[in-house]
Amino acid sequence: MSNSRFSILLASLSLSLPVFAVLRLVLLIKQSAEIDSPVYQIIEAFLLGIISDLSFFSYFFIPFVLYLTLLPQRIYQSRWHKGFIYLILFINIYALLFIAASEWFFWDEFGVRFNFIAVDYLVYTNEVVRNIVESYPLPKILTAIFIVSSLCFWGLLKLAGIDLNINEDFTSRLKIAGC
How far is it, in rounded angstroms, from Cα 111 to Cα 156? Predict the structure, then answer.
């Protein structure tokens, strides 16, 4: 799939899985003094986390797979579309890192990963946003996420060999999308 328009999804997944694995590891280390579970249960939890991440991304990528499958070649290779794809990739990377940072701060505050508390707080959005703005140096955090996202974006483009000039007929795209 490295010579396919779908390689961008594989590249995105290859960044997302390690980010979430590192987040789990960092949270595990942070709470290591309070953990009395045997090592095999910790390994099992990490494996279940990877399975959960893969399940999430298999659903998350469905609209992108449909889009990349159905989009005609001439539009796919157009200049504006390349910019659009790069923008979407950057937004996804930024969102990924924003979620990871948010999970860290949520854990720091509540001692758990996102859960019903986070959903419950959506009801009180104004109060929560005001509290977050008052409690955290948001401009610094968001700028740091932007810088790291930019570095990941450029690194991903270089390392993943994402080629937006690839010629792929509809039948080939359909076969790949069906996998």
Answer: 32
